[in-house]
Amino acid sequence: MAENPMLKFVGKEQAYPEKRGADARAEDFLEISKSFILDKAEEQASRCSQCGVPYCSTHCPLHNHIPDWLRLTAEGRLREAYELSNLTSTMPEICGRICPQDRLCEGNCVIEFSGHGSVTIGSVEKFITDTAWKEGWVEPLVPGAARGQSVGVIGAGPAGLTTAEYLRVAGYEVHVYDRHDRAGGLLTYGIPGFKLEKDVVMRRVQRLKDGGIIFHEGFEVGRDASMEQLRAKHDAILIATGVYKARDIKAPGVGAPGVVKALDYLTASNKAGFGDAVPGHEDGTLLATGKNVVVIGGGDTAMDCVRTAIRQGAKSVKCLYRRDRDNMPGSQREVANAEEEGVEFVWLTAPIAFEGTEHVTGVKVTKMRLGSPDASGRRAPEPDPGSEHTLEADLVIKALGYDPEDLPRLFGADDLSVTRWGTLRVDHKTMMTSMDGVFAAGDIVRGASLVVWAIRDGRDVTDHMHKYLKAKAVAAASERVAA
């Protein structure tokens, strides 16, 4: 009987791909981890316990067939592993890089609960699809038989791109509209290269372009076309714009020069990485070189900012967060990476004013203490009287999260209904907005969330749009017959 290639978690320890040294990786924007070599990927995949109820799949928003493709990897059947991985995700190599696996699949791995350390699922997922690209297994997007109907997708982020791909395969003409000069949304301009190198995103986008999806880049709905014009042009519309309005701080001096928004800062850095001319780098307003940098926030965007500032050669980088380490929303892996690279975390601290008139010179802060739990169950931070002091700062980056923009006003579409949070209101049975034939998916519906959830929403809305378009085609055919 052949030896079982799985259940090796007792004899083989958990291992991640080797990280480059902190000093070396702080010098560039390349990804910090090398990819697995084949033997190591097979070895780590073989640690999977093949449990009867795979919590890794259950806790993955895409419900990826994780134990199955781990087994195929362990057996050396890598092409089959890729094909199975590709069945449920349009971007497995991107999710493998940027998903918070410690909170999703790996954090719910059965062998993690048993004290053996989870299977390194994300690293194996990345390895599988990177190998598929290298070996030519990633097939071109082949459009289905033309249906004579077209779809407009507003927003070229993960939700929009996922829907565009699936609808193109189903035979629809697909147009994607995006305000930026490159597709990808936050994958392109929000996430730094050290987490997601940009050629990884661009090859995905190019595959869609080669498959006949028509991209309209630098296109703003409300400026270049109204919502009504797009509705007249297409048989259905998807709004997948994400949420881009930065949350602000109410404190004296917050408008001082040198106090900037996280997304402006990250977009400038990513544009510079593409070789674009970046005014904010030329005049220094969005560049950390030689400066004392203070980043305010404790989420993944804050982690992206502090680690970018290190790479730009900041004199010092501090991250202020009003709660403690155990209560921060960002990935603990990212915090560890940032600390290795020289970031100082100032826990239980909140800004109360920004000093400097011509330019910011410091952040006045107060220490915080955790009080009683709030409605969400988290202990609410309270100021600690008498603890105020000032931190020196030449550049302050606000990374407090994102809210939706006012789409009805921006799009000139007063009939577009929103919730009290500003997200688009949809019928959750159909994912259609208050406007007939206009659907919505991703963060613009659920609020700021994860890339993997955007992909899931893009996959789900595809089915609803497909049903709507088929019904519309049948109705149109019936009208022609009656005429």
Automatic annotation (TrEMBL):
Residues 376-389 have a biased composition (Basic and acidic residues). PANTHER family: GLUTAMATE SYNTHASE [NADPH] SMALL CHAIN, GLUTAMATE SYNTHASE [NADPH] SMALL CHAIN-RELATED. Residues 26-136 form the Dihydroprymidine dehydrogenase domain. Its EC number is 1.4.1.13, 1.4.1.14. It comes from Sphingobium scionense. It comes from the Bacteria. This is Glutamate synthase (NADPH/NADH) small chain. The keyword Oxidoreductase applies. Signal peptide: none annotated. Pfam families: Fer4_20 (PF14691), Pyr_redox_2 (PF07992). GO terms for molecular function: 4 iron, 4 sulfur cluster binding; glutamate synthase (NADH) activity; glutamate synthase (NADPH) activity; metal ion binding. SUPFAM superfamilies: alpha-helical ferredoxin, Nucleotide-binding domain. Its cofactor is [4Fe-4S] cluster. The lineage of its organism: Bacteria, Pseudomonadati, Pseudomonadota, Alphaproteobacteria, Sphingomonadales. NCBIfam families: gltD_gamma_fam. Residues 370-389 are annotated as: Disordered. Keywords: 4Fe-4S, Iron, Iron-sulfur, Metal-binding, NADP, Oxidoreductase. Residues 151-458 form the FAD/NAD(P)-binding domain.
